[in-house]
C-alpha cells in the first residue's frame, strides 16, 4: 500500500475516532454557534446562581467588509449551557460620553452586589483604544459609566501598545487584578477595592510565551490560570493571521507564568478570543468562530464547548463541535457526490463529510482537487428521495500551487428533466478561508450541482460543500 493510501486510511480512522468521541461525549454542544440571529464575538463568561451569562461583543460588519463594526455589547444567558437567550444590547459606546467607536472585548467582574463591566473602546483621545468601566446592580444591568473617563489609556505609564481585552480576576483575599493588552503587549495591575482605579503601577507579567491578545484569568485548586490568544507558527497556527488559545499557570496572581501549551486550535475566524468557566460541575470554553451562516472574520459567532482538566491540573485540548453553524440541516451528509473530475490522489468524499476547515490551505483533512483540469468543472450531490434546500455553502481549497480559488461559481438544481439555476440566488462567493454561502428560494429536488470555472492557469479544489435545508 502506498504512503498516500496509508495516510488516507489513517485519516479515515481518525475521522471515525473523532466522531465516536463526539458521540460518547453526548454531542450536547453540536449546536455551535449558540446564537445565529446576530453575530457575536469576544465572549466573557460569568456564572451567577443557576445561570451562565456571556458578555459578548456584537459584530455588525456588512458582508465582505474588511474591518470591525462594533457598537454595543450583548448579554447571552443559559441555565443549561445548551439553550441560549440573547437578552439584547446591555451596554453601548453611547454609554461612554468620552468614547466614539470600537466596542471590543469586555469582561464583567462582580463585587459587593455590583457588576463591573470592563470594556475597550476608542476613547477619542490621543492614541486609539482605552479601557473604560461600567457598573450595574444585576448581571443584566442596567449599566452606566462608573468613572466618566478611561481607567486605562495610552497615557497610563507602561500601558500596552494596544489597550484592549481586559480580564479582571478577584482572588480569595479580595484583591482584584486586571490584565489586558494587544499587539503582544500584555500588562497587569492591581485594582483598588472600588474597582474603578488602578492600585499601584502597571507591570509587564513574565512567562506568557507568545502572548498576542485576549487574556482570560481564573483560579482552580490554588493554581492561577491564564488563557490567551497567541499567533505563533510554532504549534499554534498555520498562518500568523490566525490565532490559537494557549494557557499558562502560576502560583502568584502576578506571575511569573509558565506556558503549558495550546488548548484551542485556530478557529475559522482569524481572531480567537476565549473564556473558561465552571458551571454546574462542568468546565466550558466559550470562544468565537466564523461558523454562522454568512459569517466571516468580522461577522463572528460565539461557541461553547466542554473543557477537561487532567488529574495534574493541565488542560486537555478543546474539541470544537459544530452543527448549528449551518443554521439548518446539512443534507450533503446523506448525499452521493459526483464530479466532472477528481485528481486520483485527492478525495471527492472529502466535500461532504461534515468537516469544518481551519482555512483554505487546510490539508489536515482530505481534500477535493481537479488538477490538471481547467475551465468549467462541477461537483454534484444526488439523493434517493427529494430534499428541500435553500442554501449551498462552499469552502474552497487553495494549495498555493496548481490549485487556486475559482474565478466564478453558480448553483443549479435538477428539475426532473433539466438543470436550472436556483431561483433568487445570492452571489456565489469565491473568498478564501470561509464558507461562501449561496442563499436561494427553496427548491425540492433530488440533485444539486455546484458549477465553477477556474482561474486562468489553475485548477480548482474544495474542502467542503454543504447543502442546507431551510
Ligand atoms: O473584537 C475586536 C478584537 O478582536 C478583540 O478585542 C480581540 O480580542 C479580537 O477578538
UniProtKB/TrEMBL annotation:
Keywords for this protein: Carbohydrate metabolism, Glycosidase, Hydrolase, Polysaccharide degradation, Signal, Xylan degradation
Residue ranges of every copy of the F5/8 type C domain listed in the record: 335-458
Record-linked InterPro entries: FA58C, Galactose-bd-like_sf, Glyco_hydro_43, Glyco_hydro_beta-prop_sf, Glycosyl_Hydrlase_43_Enz
Stored SUPFAM superfamilies: Arabinanase/levansucrase/invertase (SSF75005), Galactose-binding domain-like (SSF49785)
Single annotated GO MF: hydrolase activity
Signal sequence annotation: 1-30
Pfam families with a match to the protein in the record: F5_F8_type_C, Glyco_hydro_43
Family: Belongs to the glycosyl hydrolase 43 family.
PANTHER family the record matches: ENDO-1,4-BETA-XYLANASE, PUTATIVE (AFU_ORTHOLOGUE AFUA_2G04480)-RELATED
Protein name as annotated: Glycosyl hydrolase family 43
Amino acid at each position: 500500500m502506498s504512503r498516500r493510501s496509508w495516510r488516507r486510511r489513517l485519516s479515515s480512522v481518525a475521522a471515525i475516532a473523532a466522531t465516536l468521541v463526539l458521540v460518547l461525549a453526548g454531542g450536547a454542544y453540536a449546536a455551535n454557534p449558540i446564537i445565529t440571529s446576530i453575530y457575536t464575538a469576544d465572549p466573557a463568561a460569568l456564572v451567577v446562581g443557576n445561570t451562565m451569562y456571556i458578555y459578548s461583543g456584537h459584530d455588525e460588519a456588512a458582508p465582505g467588509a474588511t474591518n470591525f463594526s462594533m457598537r454595543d455589547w450583548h448579554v447571552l444567558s443559559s441555565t443549561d449551557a445548551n439553550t441560549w437567550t440573547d437578552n439584547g444590547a446591555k451596554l453601548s459606546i453611547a454609554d461612554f460620553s468620552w468614547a466614539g467607536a470600537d466596542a471590543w472585548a469586555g469582561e464583567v467582574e462582580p463585587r459587593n452586589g455590583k457588576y463591573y463591566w470592563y470594556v475597550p473602546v476608542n476613547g477619542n483621545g490621543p492614541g486609539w483604544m482605552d479601557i473604560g468601566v461600567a457598573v450595574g446592580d444585576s448581571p443584566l444591568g442596567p449599566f452606566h459609566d462608573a468613572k466618566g473617563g478611561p481607567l486605562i489609556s495610552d497615557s497610563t505609564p507602561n500601558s500596552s501598545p494596544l489597550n484592549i481585552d481586559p480580564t479582571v480576576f478577584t482572588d480569595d483575599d479580595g484583591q482584584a487584578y486586571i490584565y489586558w493588552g494587544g499587539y503582544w503587549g500584555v500588562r497587569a495591575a492591581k485594582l483598588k477595592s472600588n474597582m474603578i482605579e488602578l492600585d499601584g503601577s502597571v507591570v509587564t507579567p513574565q512567562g506568557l510565551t507568545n502572548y498576542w491578545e485576549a487574556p482570560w484569568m481564573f483560579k482552580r485548586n490554588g493554581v492561577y490560570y491564564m488563557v490567551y490568544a497567541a499567533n505563533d507558527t510554532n504549534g499554534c497556527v498555520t498562518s500568523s493571521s490566525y490565532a490559537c488559545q494557549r494557557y499558562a499557570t502560576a502560583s502568584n496572581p502576578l506571575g511569573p507564568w509558565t506556558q503549558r501549551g495550546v488548548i484551542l486550535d485556530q478557529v475559522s475566524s482569524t481572531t480567537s478570543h476565549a473564556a473558561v468557566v465552571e458551571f454546574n460541575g462542568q468546565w466550558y470554553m466559550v470562544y468565537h468562530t466564523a461558523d454562522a451562516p454568512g459569517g466571516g472574520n468580522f461577522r463572528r459567532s460565539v461557541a461553547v464547548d466542554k473543557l477537561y482538566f487532567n488529574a495534574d491540573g493541565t488542560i486537555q485540548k478543546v474539541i470544537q463541535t459544530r452543527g448549528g453553524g449551518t443554521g439548518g440541516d446539512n443534507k450533503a451528509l446523506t448525499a452521493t457526490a459526483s464530479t466532472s473530475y477528481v485528481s486520483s490522489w485527492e478525495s471527492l468524499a472529502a466535500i461532504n463529510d461534515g468537516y469544518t476547515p481551519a482555512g483554505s490551505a487546510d490539508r489536515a483533512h482530505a481534500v477535493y482537487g481537479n488538477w490538471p483540469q481547467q475551465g468549467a468543472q462541477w461537483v454534484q450531490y444526488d439523493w434517493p428521495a427529494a430534499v428541500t434546500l435553500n442554501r449551498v455553502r462552499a469552502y474552497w481549497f487553495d494549495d498555493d500551487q496548481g490549485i487556486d480559488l475559482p474565478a466564478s461559481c453558480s448553483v443549479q438544481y435538477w428539475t426532473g428533466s433539466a438543470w436550472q439555476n436556483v431561483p433568487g440566488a445570492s452571489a456565489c462567493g469565491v473568498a478564501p478561508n470561509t464558507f461562501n454561502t449561496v442563499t436561494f428560494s427553496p427548491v425540492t429536488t433530488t440533485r444539486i450541482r455546484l458549477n465553477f470555472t477556474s482561474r486562468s492557469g489553475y485548477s480548482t479544489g474544495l474542502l467542503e460543500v454543504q447543502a442546507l435545508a431551510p
